[in-house]
Amino acid sequence: xxxxxxxxETKTGDYLRQGLREAGYTADLARNGVDGLHxxxxxxxxxxxxxxxxxxxxxxxxxxxxxRAHKDVPVLFLTARDAVEDRVKGxxxxxxxxxxxxxxxxELLARVRTVLRRGRSGAEPxxxxxxxxxxxxxxxxxxxxxxxxxxTAKEFALLELLLRRHGEVLPRSLIASQVWDMNFxxxxxxxxxxxxxxxxxxxxPFDTRLVHTVRGMGYVLEAPDAA
Length: 227
Ligand code: CA
Known about the structure:
Elements: E1 2-6, H1 10-22, E2 26-30, H2 33-42, E3 47-51, H3 59-68, E4 75-79, H4 84-92, E5 97-100, H5 105-119, E6 127-130, E7 133-136, E8 141-144, E9 147-149, H6 153-164, E10 170-171, H7 172-180, H8 189-202, E11 211-214, E12 218-221
Parallel strand pairs: 1-2, 1-3, 3-4, 4-5
Antiparallel strand pairs: 6-7, 7-8, 8-9, 10-12, 11-12
Helix pairs in contact: 2-3, 6-7, 6-8
The structure holds calcium ion.
């Protein structure tokens, strides 16, 4: 999944690009409207995240130009807090959704997934799998070996992250920022406790372990034959 971010605020743009990359997307970033439109016209993106106020061309002009060129890539607008008319105008021009600044990254990610699911049905896998473990993202259901596993919302998010990036050692700091949406430097307890609970559900009742601790580094989800 390839996402184009058009955002002139340096920090916001960098933050979005990094967050989306960590969530497993390919993310391009344009810092002004002209570059943004050019990339949107020439690149094969699955989603555009478009700031409204931009130097060069604003977000509406970009969207308008894309729709005129029959580029029907889904668009998620980023708008200022009180700009109700902006939102109406964006949706009228054919935006798929909008998000009001400032927003939590987890909220953006949820919108991104929803828009992508609507935009290109079937393009994003709706079930993640590793060995006999399955996570059905639409029905919000986990099974292992066909057995239903009940997960809390946090455990589900944690397992989704581990599955999306299975085989990769995920540092606690990354898990904290992706699943808890927090900056995390002192208390590792939250993650350790959640990980222990998750393991007791997806590993303990079964013969083979999928969740592994890498001392001093983090956690990895891996099938035994891949180790
Ligand atoms: Ca801006």
